[in-house]
Amino acid sequence: MIENDLLEETAHTLMTKAGIEIPDDYLNGIKAMAQAEEGDLSSFVLKAMLENWEAAKEDRRPMCADTGLPRYYVKIGNEAKIDGGFIALERALRQATARATTSVPLRPNRVHPLWRTDNNNNVGINAPEIDWSFEPDADWVDITTVHKGGLFGTDYRMLFPGDGIDGIKRFVLDTLISFGKRGLACQPAIVGIGVGGSKDTCMVLGKQAACLRTVGDRNPDPEIAKLELELQELGNSIGMGAMGFVGKSMVVDCHVEVGYTHTGGMPVSVHCFCLSSRRATARIHADGQVEYRTDPQWFTPYIRRDTVDWGTTAQAAAE
Fold first, then answer.
1. Structural domain count, the chain
2. Which of these, 16, 116, 158, 319, is most buried using a 10 Å CB contact count?
3. Strand 290-293 relative to strand 279-284: parallel, antiparallel, unpaired?
4. Is the pLDDT score of 313 beyond 90?
C-alpha cells in the first residue's frame, strides 16, 4: 500500500527538481548546440543559458523567473494499491503544488480566466492538470511533473490526407518561423508534434511528445523516426537561433506522436517545450522505495498499442 504522505512528499520533491535542475539530456543537447552555433548573439545566449543553469543549481533557485504552469503525468501500475485511492492521490498532488509554490518558490501563475482572481498557490479549478495512464503487470506509481509555459508556443491545423508528409513539413516550418519572428517560443526548444486523433487528442499527443520524451529519443516506427530528424533539420535551417537571433539553433530535438484519426482528415499540432525544459519523474514502489529520474518513460509499448487486446499473444500478432 502506497501511503498518502509519501505521495505528497515525492510530488513536492519533484516540483523542486523540475524547477531548479535541467535534465541531463536537454543540457547535453544545448551544450552540443553551443559548440556548433555560429551566430554571435545566438552563441552568447546559449552560453548565458548554460551559466544561468549552473548558478540556479548551485544556489537552489528556479532557473527561470517564470516557472510556467506546473502539471502532472501519472502512470499507475495495474496492481498498484494507493491508500485512499485516486482521490487521495489527486489531493496529494494538489497539496504538493501549493507547498512548492511557497517553498521552491514557484511563481503563482494560475488565475481565474475571467475574474483574474487567484489562490496564490497554482491550484484552482482544473489546476494543476493531471494526465492519467496505466501500465500492465506493475505495482508501482510513476509521477512526472512538468512546468510547461502556458502562454504561446503552440499551434494546430486540420490538414487533409492529400496534404501528406509535405503538408506537415510546410505547417511545421510556417509555425516555427512565426514563433521565431513574433517571440512566441523560447528556443532552442524540444518541439513536439501530434498527428491524428481528434482535435483534443492531437493537442495532447503533441504536448506529451514535447514534454515527455528525451533529447535523442526516436519513435519506434522507423518512418516516423525519419520524419522527426527531417523536421529537426528543417527547423534549424530557417536562419533563426537562440531566442530568435540569427543562427541555427532553434530545435534541440523533434518528437512526433500519432493517433488513429478520421478517414477524411489529418490534424496536426505543434508544441514547443521552452529552453527551461522543466521535468522530473519518480517511481514509487509498493514497498515505499522511491527512485528519481529525468526520463518520464511515458511512451511504453502499452501506450502505443495498436490492438484490442494486450498481452503476449497480441504483441506477437502485432509484430
1. 1
2. 16
3. antiparallel
4. no
Give the percent of the chain with pLDDT over 90: 82
Query: Would you say residue 65 lies in a domain?
Result: no
The stretches of 60-138 forming alpha helices (DSSP H) are 85-103
Residue 39 amino acid letter: G
User: What distance in Å separates the CA atoms of residue 21 and residue 46, rounded to the nearest whole number?
Assistant: 17
DSSP characters for 128-160?
S-EEEEEETT---EEEEEEEE--SSSEEEEEE-
- Alpha carbon separation from 235 to 85, 190, 222, 239, 249 (Å, rounded): 44, 11, 20, 9, 8
pLDDT at 234 over 80: yes
Residue with cell 506477437: 316
* 77 found inside a domain: no
Q: How far is residue 216's CA from residue 141's CA, in Å, rounded to a whole number? A: 25
Q: Is residue 109 part of a domain?
A: no
The alpha-carbon radius of gyration of the chain (Å, integer) is 20
- What's the pLDDT score for residue 312? 52
Query: Does some domain include residue 260?
Result: yes
Alpha carbon 270 to its chain's center:
12
DSSP 109: -
Is the sign of the CA dihedral 11, 24, 286, 78 positive or negative? Answer: positive
How many other CB atoms sit within 10 Å of the CB of residue 287?
Answer: 8
Residue pLDDT, tens place only, 197-228: 999 999 999 999 999 999 999 999 999 999 99
> Where in the sequence is the domain holding 237, given as residue range(s)?
151-273
Report residue 271: phi and psi, to 5°. -135, 135
The pTM (predicted TM-score) of the whole model is 0.93
